[in-house]
């Protein structure tokens, strides 16, 4: 069974990115995977802000990342990059926390002008952290996110297709270390 950990890096309470993470978690569970979901906004702010390396709450999330064959990292674009709380979280991880893992970035943004933030902001840090393979990822324009009658979010067909491809790519992953 493939183990997948999702990290959602929006600080916002009403976060579209967090909702996408929730939806992806459900889809991965339906596919029979073992899934952990980390909403960084729910971790103790003090521990993140003061880089508390011995934080118990954060240690649990590190274990989930260690167990994972693949990690999906979700963030809104903030100031042309990913969010500060996601960086604070990544900073507390061991240096090579992504060693041998497949990493899939999923980014939401307000303007397509920042599409390349996946390439220049996220991918280099995944590479530094030892990622074996970094998938192309998906950039989702916030205004294209819609809801169905049950309140579940959905996207334009091309984005739905990209997400399906990403889920397929990580579905048969096994840790390569
Ligand atoms: C502080 C802040 C900075 C932002 N900076 C950018 C930006 O530089 N580029 C961009 O495309 N969108 C930017 N946005 C828009 C968000 O990326 C976008 O609305 C995203 O979908 C919000 O995700 P969330 O609901 O999960 O927080 C910014 C939003 C906020 C609140």
Description:
- The chain is an alpha/beta fold.
- It has a single domain, classed as Flavodoxin domain (Rossmann fold), CATH 3.40.50.360.
- The protein contains 6 helices and 8 strands, in the order βαβααβαβαββββα.
- The strands form 2 sheets. Strands 1, 2, 3, 4, 5 and 6 form a 6-stranded parallel β-sheet that branches. It has a two-stranded antiparallel ribbon with strand order 7-8.
- The chain is globular, with a radius of gyration of 15 Å.
- The two termini are 16 Å apart.
- The structure holds flavin mononucleotide (FMN).
- The site of flavin mononucleotide has 17 residues, from helix 1 and strand 4.
- InterPro entries: Flavoprotein-like_sf (IPR029039), FMN_Rdtase-like_dom (IPR005025), NAD(P)H-dep_FMN_reductase (IPR051814), NADPH-dep_FMN_reduc_SsuE (IPR020048).
- One of its GO terms (molecular function) is FMN reductase [NAD(P)H] activity.
- It comes from Parageobacillus caldoxylosilyticus NBRC 107762.
- One of its GO terms (biological process) is alkanesulfonate catabolic process.
- This is FMN reductase.
Task: Detail the topology: elements first, then pairings.
Layout: E1 3-8, H1 16-30, E2 34-39, H2 45-49, H3 56-67, E3 70-76, H4 84-92, E4 102-109, H5 117-128, E5 133-134, E6 138-141, E7 146-147, E8 153-154, H6 157-171
Bound molecules: flavin mononucleotide (FMN).
Flavin mononucleotide (FMN) binds next to helix 1 and strand 4.
């Amino acid at each position: 069974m493939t183990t997948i950990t999702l990290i959602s890096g929006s600080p916002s309470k009403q976060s579209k990115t967090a909702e996408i993470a929730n939806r992806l978690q459900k889809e991965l569970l339906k596919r029979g995977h073992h899934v952990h979901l980390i909403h960084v906004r729910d971790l103790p702010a003090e521990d993140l802000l003061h880089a508390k390396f011995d934080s118990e709450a954060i240690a649990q999330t590190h274990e989930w990342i260690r167990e994972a064959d693949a990690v999906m990292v979700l963030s809104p674009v903030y100031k042309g990059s990913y969010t500060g709380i996601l960086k604070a979280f990544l900073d507390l991880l061991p240096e090579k926390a992504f060693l041998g893992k497949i990493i899939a970035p999923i980014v939401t943004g307000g303007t397509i002008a920042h599409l390349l933030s996946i390439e220049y902001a996220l991918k280099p840090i995944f590479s530094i952290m030892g990622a074996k393979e970094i998938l192309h990822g998906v950039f989702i324009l916030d205004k294209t996110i819609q809801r169905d009658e049950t309140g579940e979010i959905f996207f334009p067909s091309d984005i739905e297709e990209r997400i399906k491809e990403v889920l397929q790519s990580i579905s048969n992953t096994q840790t390569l270390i």
